Amino acid sequence: MIVARTGNEAMAEAMRQINPDVVAAYPITPATEVVQLFSKFVHDGDVDTEFVPAESEHSAISACVGASAAGARVMTSTASQGLALMHEILFIAAGLRVPIVICLVNRSLSSPINIHCDHSDTLASRDSGWLQIYTENAQEAYDTTIQLVKVAEQALLPGIVSTDAFIISHGMERVELVDDNEVPKFLGERKLNYSLLDVDNPVTLGALDLQDFFFEHKRSEIDAMDHVLPIIERVQKEYGDKFGRYYSTVDEYKMDDAEVVIIAMGSTGGTAKVAVERLREKGKKVGLVRARVYRPFPKDAMLKAVTKAKVIGIMDRADTLSTLGGHLYNDVRSILYDTATRPLLKNYIYGLGGRDISIEEIEAIYDELFNIKKSGKVDKNIVYYGVRGE
Amino acid sequence: MKKEKKGWKDLPIGLVLEAGSSKEFETGDWRSEKPIWDSEKCTHCLLCWVYCPDSSIIVKDGKVQGIDYRYCKGCGICAEECPPKVQAIKMVREEK
Question: Boundaries of each Pyruvate:ferredoxin oxidoreductase core domain copy (chain A) (predicted)?
Fold first, then answer.
């Protein structure tokens, strides 16, 4: 079925079709609608979900942890400060290996206070042990929400699927929905290796873990991250085979012979694709790589994608405030260290607090990268693009 | 009972252990003070049993039987909660 939906509406539709056992949530701009629409589905009897309107995001995610450990299929939604307030429990959820899925809208973290898009909220949580997938449009947000539930339950890892604030969350788009009855069939029942509600087989969950066992448990959690990419790839393929829309961990656009490349995340991927098309019409060998799956980092797929690139511009919609540039830049720079022919890299920090990035600006970045290719050197590795006073 | 410690690949996923495993962790040797219970003075009001954070007051058929020194950490809450007119529990220095 083809419908007109905003990113938030698309995510809420996916949640309705998934019909989770428990949703515990606290609304926050710009993700409010996801929970608001979902609560209407609960009220109207469109889902069987036990809906817990919590008094804070910390409580919401805590309730999610308990419900998931009891064996429920659990989802929630948040953004920015909400995710920051969940921060403590994110690590606990990952360590307890409870497969919660968060439908998240990327919004700047305060301060200054702002409600618009950048990726500082999820990137501040990147080391929490949650899967992170950044989507380019409402369709991808919808499809990925369904996929991520299956991935999370198979890997026993929690995951975040995100959209860019307002650009995707409130932008109306053409979205193709899967039939209602197909989604539960695709997901199947959650398989449990224990349940806190199984009184005949009681377990201890999350016991104190000191010098003699903490490291072993952490190592096991790291191992799950090491092995989740094939699960993501398998679920993406199953989804594509069934519903016709295929995704990959790393989204490549016109990369076959690309020499000058931009790597970006989120909605900027879509904007950059138009810039690539325009430059290709002029005969320029440009390409785009979109880091769709960000945690774990799809190292092999990323290396394979950029293997022929001479110059790469990496666009980060957040800064690490470490003097070392953005998160994506550091990851890409790190994986390229062991390659024989390291391409030249330049980091563009852009769009903080929701500042727009236009097709023309991305074309200008490609032009700059061509100049770097010509001169063979990068004058400044990290630049702040589109900020006044530079 | 010493068990061979498992490597990370052999651990159950998600910090799940058998129920009641804290029974194996005897905390009695943490004690620097020890509660001494006097069966003559005790009125079996069970306040000590209610307040003991380590379930170390042994009760049978509604009557206090004694203190489980395998787990008692010597916090003294039982002595504090024992009614002033009764004073059936006294804390003494642990000597070894």
Answer: 258-362
